[in-house]
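Fold it.
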Amino acid sequence: MKTTDYAQALHKEIDQTPAEHLAALLNIVHTFRESVSLKSPLASVEKGLQEALAGEGEDISTLWDGIDVD
């Protein structure tokens, strides 16, 4: 199926969705798009570095706390 066919099919589904559910549908589509969008590796490294420098990380000694199995 070509991209334009997917877009047409998606538009058809949207047109058939009751108006009271459009906000939920928009939220679903937005969340999906964000979940499949590739983030820049550099941005992830920079964010991690900023968090580490700000002391926002977890102490590694607590990493396994609470997961003991009896």
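Helices lie at 3-15, 22-36, 41-53.
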